[in-house]
Amino acid sequence: MRLICAPPKITPVNDPPALRVMLYGQAGSPERASAGEAARREIARQKLIPTARAWDFLSIALAVVTADFGVRRDPSPDGWTREIELDIAVQDPGFWSTQAEPLAGTLGFLTTDRWRLRFLPGGMRYTPPSGAKRPASDSVMLLSGGLDSLVGGIDLAAAGRRPFAVSQTVRGDAEKQVDFAAIIGGGLRHIQLNHNVQVPGAPEDSQRGRSLVFIAFGVAIATALAAYARGESVPLFVCENGFIAMNAPLTGIRLGSLSTRTAHPEYLGRLQQILNAADLRVQLFNPYATLTKGEMLANCADQNLLGHLAAVSTSCGRFQRFNYHHCGRCVPCQVRRAAFLRWGRADATSYVFDPLGKDDADHARFDDVRAVAMANAQVRSEGFDRWLGAALASDYVDRGPTKLMLQRGLAELDLLHRTFGVT
User: Fold this and answer.
1) Would you call 21 helix, strand, or coil by DSSP?
2) 253-301: per-residue pLDDT in tens?
3) Which of 188, 213, 274, 346 is the most exposed place for a label (fewest CB within 10 A)?
4) Does CATH place domain 139-285 in 1.20.1070?
5) Residue 198 DSSP code
6) Is residue 327 within 8 Å of 336, Cβ to Cβ?
7) The pTM is what?
8) Would you list the domain boundaries of the chain?
């Protein structure tokens, strides 16, 4: 499917049928899509000044997330892999055309789709508001409302940093994002942004590309800081435990983007190369790439604050589906519950499906619970290396420490299952 993400006056040559997308504006028609208008307004309201290249990168990310919502996987021959063509209007099409293949490869790794990107002139120029400000924050962090970013914020503040917290607003997490930003380090500068994608018809549910726009929000804010204006490089912290970041397939059928790759070292490494090529002095860091979630909790610099806030954070992959409660049985919930056991503190989180060992389709027989049980059974019977397979086959992965981290992470999950009697 083809999407044209450009002002209505721009019509590419040999224009076949395509979904027209209005970036930073209203669709104006039920047959069109739109994204980014609310984010543009909020950035302007806070009187921030992202650079032109960062704004182009945000435009690309908004086009990608619109395609991710608007192109369904069902009609694909294999029910998953999509063919997506994007024509994107930017301010510097000459430069971005040199990055079309690296971007397509990065997106292919993230979503396991086939992407083709073309860049057109005439992209929206961000107009700095009067009285624009250059915040004094020394870095940027992505603050999701999740447990890992909570730990990350606490640790960064304890280390003397003053990060600008950037949140991608999600229903059920907006208030806790505000609360966390207000508490961490005595209060962090904070902005909440949303892509606000609107597409004709029912959106695709899988949405593997959302992390790109979250990072693009962070890049845009990083280039608006005083440190960036002084010519410094600005760290952008993407705080995710290494076990989930690697997301090694638990079983042979959980391959590719069926498991998310939003903080995978290869994905972040490929993005960093694109940022470097664009002369965007923003450095992506995941400080917890070789730590399990349990180790993140145990090593957190402010145990009292973490103990106060941990239970109200969000980890569940189905949080909205269960009326903003943790399901307790998806892989992220199991990793969270195992982390509390490793931490040694009572888990006050309310789980919809609490007794994992109960022998029915909602508990021990649920797919994600079975997958974890099967992974640990394979490790016991065939060894860890056989289970791991080719999961570390990437030039961006520090193999030795990562392998040890995955062993420890799987052991945390094994303890969880033994504690609840999962068989």
Assistant:
1) strand
2) 654 434 578 899 999 999 999 999 999 999 999 999 999 999 999 999 9
3) 346
4) no
5) B
6) no
7) 0.96
8) 2-120, 139-285, 315-420
